[in-house]
Write a structure and sequence with these properties.
Layout (H helix, E strand, L loop, with lengths): L4 H12 L9 E6 L14 E7 L4 H16 L11 H18 L21
Antiparallel strand pairs: 1-2
Length: about 120
C-alpha cells in the first residue's frame, strides 16, 4: 500500500484508540421500496454496502435522504441529525487531539463546486 514508515506506528495506535476520536460517522447503504411496493423484492431492505469516514459518504447521505424525503412526501424533516452531529464530533475530536498534542491545531477543508465532475440529483 506504500504507507510511509513514519506513519506506521500512528496507524497501529489508531486501531486500539479509545475514545475513537478519529471516527466521525458510518453509513449502511440499503435499497428499500416500501412495505407495499409493487415489486416484492423491494419490500424487504437489502444492504448494498457499508461506508465509514469516506470523504463523500456524509454529503451523499444528506442529499439522498433529502431527495427521498421530497419524493415520498413523508413529513418535512429527515428525522436525524446528519448536519448537527458531525459538527459536535469535530468539536470533540479537535479538543481531544489538542489535549494530546498540547497545542491548538488548524484543520483545512477543500471543496469543489459546479466543476465538470460535480453531480446533482435530477
Amino acid at each position: 500500500m506504500a504507507i510511509p514508515a513514519f506513519a506506521l506506528q500512528q496507524i497501529k495506535e489508531s486501531w486500539n484508540r479509545e475514545p475513537a476520536w478519529g471516527s466521525l460517522y458510518r453509513r449502511f447503504d440499503v435499497c428499500f421500496g416500501s412495505l407495499d411496493h409493487h415489486g416484492p423484492r423491494l419490500r424487504v431492505p437489502k444492504c448494498y454496502e457499508f461506508n465509514a469516514d469516506t470523504p463523500t459518504s456524509l454529503v451523499e447521505a444528506a442529499s439522498i435522504q433529502w431527495l427521498w424525503l421530497e419524493q415520498t412526501g413523508h413529513g418535512n424533516d429527515q428525522l436525524n441529525s446528519i448536519t448537527e452531529r458531525p459538527i459536535e464530533v469535530w468539536k470533540r475530536n479537535l479538543t481531544l487531539i489538542e489535549q494530546k498534542l498540547g497545542h491548538r491545531i488548524t484543520v483545512h477543508f477543500a471543496v469543489g463546486s459546479g466543476g465538470p465532475t460535480a453531480r446533482s440529483a435530477p
